[in-house]
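New to this. Please check this fold:
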Amino acid sequence: MRLGRLCGLLMGATLLTVVSTVWAQTPVFTGEIAPGFDRCMTERGETTMGEVDCYSQAYDYWDAELNRQYKAAQSYCDSLKVTGSDVDKAVAQECRASLKETQLRWIRYRDAMQTSNFFLVPDRNNQRGNIEHLRTMVYVVMTQAQLLTPPQQPQ
């Protein structure tokens, strides 16, 4: 019984170490939501439509960045084929398959979040609620783009 508990504690500590290491390497959001967002809000954010447009531009920016990071992660998986051996090829294929499955699951999460977030936003039946909903979805996509960023390849 004690051995089982000790193994469980060790596994928990190992998992905590791995997760904290990943989060320590994850880019943290600072500054404006997307390039040009602050300027857009200064110039157009006084109107509801202007604010919606600024958040839409931020969403489009992060959606494009997410696609760019996904392609970079695929390239990273391919770079794992160091020697061209069957083992290297299998590792690269497993990496790509895992990446694809992760992204497909994230898309399902994003779509579900889009639906549930609508009900969680205060004032959901007016323009302010629509803006808050859009702002939340910008953060959902931005976070995934940052998490998907592959490690730097050794030079």
User: Anything to note?
Assistant: Residues 37 and 57 are 8 Å apart (CA to CA). Residues 6-28 have pLDDT under 50 and may be disordered. Residues 33-148 form one domain. The radius of gyration is 20 Å.
